[in-house]
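Record 1 of the preview.
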Amino acid sequence: MKRFLRLVSLTLLIMSTSGNTFAEEKVNVARQGTIRGRIVDTSKQILPGASIYIEKLHTGVTSDVNGYYTFANLTPVDEIKACGANAYFYQFDVSNPEAVQENVDKMIAEHGKIDVLLNNAGITKDGLFIRMDMEQWERVIKINLTSAYCVTHAVIKYMMKARQGSIINMSSVVGLHGNPGQANYSASKAGLIGLTKTLAKEFGSRNIRVNAVCPGFIQTAMTANLPNIDEYLKAIPMKRLGTPEDIAKTVKYLALDADYVSGQAIEVAGALII
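->
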């Protein structure tokens, strides 16, 4: 577990780079999280008024009359630190190659190496292709696909030197199957799959694995307002939307355990019928 948390802290250095890009799209990437719990003793008696202190966050709370406590307004970095790991946040435009290189070099100088890269930046600007203008097309391609080129290009030289690494590209089922009204998004996600398969062949001899994760309908802000959700569930044999935890488990597997898996585009979609 400690090994996973250490690698996740390095992964977040890359994941967080999407912050500046998302901010331009008015998406709140600095999501505020909450940790809740209950204090009981060995005989399972509740302990009201108990003090709970998280050393890495330098903050504490007191349990209420029913033994419950809450740490609120936590950033993703705070949540990781609360689990006992270290995390660091770097914010820059992942579609700007100069900014990417500068910050990746800084990460290496401060932390020594990058074990895992997760290219996770993504936006949508949906519309029927006949009505799609160049700005809609170029913006989605730039954030979803070009950013993966920029960050991977900056990181890969350090992974080659270390002769190890895992690169995970966040694609989508629409990158495999297409979707009406999402020509730009589908093209960007299909491009990530092509990039994944090519880099796996180019860098496999350096013990660098490259894979893609292709989520289906996942419970996120992007799917929260889907109309007629029951109609979508009819196309999912497992009869539920996926969760962020479903995706996280797949990413963890590819990051830590899949030593002989590379060049794959793994669907995490509950056997979605398209």
